[in-house]
Amino acid sequence: MKFEVVEHEGRRYAEIIRAGTTVDKSVFFSPAGSSFQFGLLAHGRDFVEPAHYHPTIERKIDDLQQMFVVQKGVVAVDFFSDGGVRFHEVVLRVGDAILLIHGAHSVRVLEDMQCVSVKQGPFLGADRDKVEIGVQR
Questions:
Q1: Using an 8 Å Cβ cutoff, are 80 and 108 in contact?
Q2: Full-model pTM
Q3: 2-12, pLDDT tens digit by residue?
Q4: Which site in 11, 81, 99, 137 is 20 to 30 Å from 33, CA atoms measured?
Q5: Which residues is 114 bridged to in the sheet?
């Protein structure tokens, strides 16, 4: 299984599921208490999930997580400490998926890309939902 975790100084920055990763049964990699659940669904032929809905339950979420899956191209994601020091790079290719959890990151497009992106809403505007940091070079 190709599942990776990016951690730094006790903080989980990201979870990555690489293209081609397969599982025999559904599995979620995120801790149960995480506000965004990241995993793979897998069922055998003729499986039918009963009709259902998800009830409205008030939840307190104080972080904004984002997940994307690369459909085309190559993308590098850089991770930064609170002081702006780059400590890790992950290169993503077609089919790779990443969940950005905590901490500072940047995205560099290495080859023209398109990604499916999912993040928690509502969107409050770039001025409230993004805080740029100074990066040490």
A1: no
A2: 0.87
A3: 899 999 999 99
A4: 81
A5: 72
